[in-house]
């Protein structure tokens, strides 16, 4: 008995040590990434200062760099993609979490949704370039707009398709966890399925659904290859959503291998540092909102 207790105690200590090491490793890794980017972007920050964020000029020839066009491109494409995808994500979550819990058809839709998340970004880019861009170009011609085909709008459509699986999968899991007793009580009182979904399921699962939406938004912020192939790669602030643009991730992908001067490389690294900060801020805001919603549900 004592030997068994001793072995259990040793295993518990080893497990606790492993958990602490894992947590410490994550802190070290995040800190290393943060300070490496900060140190490498120091020449750019020293030369341009805070104006780097608000400057609209990006001219590698004369070594004048500003991140504002790429910051705007990142925000526009990510927010628009989120708006395009929210309705589909929530609908798929409700469909798989409430209507189609079992069966071959439910399994097929679930597998197809997960497959969308597993498709490589470059494949989305090729599909967008050969299929979506001509469709958007025809749409722009009908509206008497400049028929670029590529641009902020096209990149947002690609991103919306790419982030739907992330939000819908988390939403489905949360909706499936809603206690059946509560739903059955509502049905017993004469509530319709629509009323149960609106007044019980969605309020109960809203924090989890929002978590999935925020996760998908973070995914959209850092997407690179698919966006690079369809956004038009213009280093100017887009005049409309149908004009070409660039995101912080796409300009790094396009120019980092061609950056020959130290200040050019440092400016690109500083853009990566800004992208990291934007992602961190979005995650912190999302966690705060989720925490507030969770407290409201419990109360």
Structural account:
This protein is mainly alpha-helical. It has one domain (41-298): MetI-like fold (Orthogonal Bundle), CATH 1.10.3720.10. Helix content is 78%, strand content 0%. The longest helix is centred in the N-terminal third of the chain and has 39 residues, at 2-40. The chain starts with a helix and ends with a helix. The model has no long low-confidence stretch (mean pLDDT 86).
Topology:
Blueprint: H1 2-40, H2 42-48, H3 51-54, H4 68-99, H5 104-118, H6 121-142, H7 152-176, H8 180-188, H9 193-222, H10 225-230, H11 248-255, H12 262-298
Helix pairs in contact: 1-12, 2-12, 4-7, 4-9, 5-7, 6-7, 7-9, 8-9, 9-12, 11-12
Summary, kept brief:
78% of the residues lie in helices and 0% in strands. The chain has helices at residues 2-40, 42-48, 51-54, 68-99, 104-118, 121-142, 152-176, 180-188, 193-222, 225-230, 248-255, 262-298.
- Describe the global form: globular
Could you tell me the number of beta strands?
0
* N- to C-terminal distance: 46 Å
Beta-strand level of the residues, as a percent range?
A: under 5%
> In the CATH hierarchy, what is the superfamily?
MetI-like
- Approximate helicity band: over 70%
The averaged pLDDT comes out at: 86
Which class do the helix and strand fractions yield? mainly alpha
Q: Oligomeric status of the shown chains?
A: single chain
The CATH architecture is Orthogonal Bundle
- Please indicate the count of domains: 1
- What is the CATH C level class, in words? Mainly Alpha
Tally of helical segments: 12
CATH topology (level 3) name:
MetI-like fold
Radius of gyration: 24 Å
Note poorly predicted spans: none
Largest sheet: none
- Order of helices and strands, N to C? HHHHHHHHHHHH
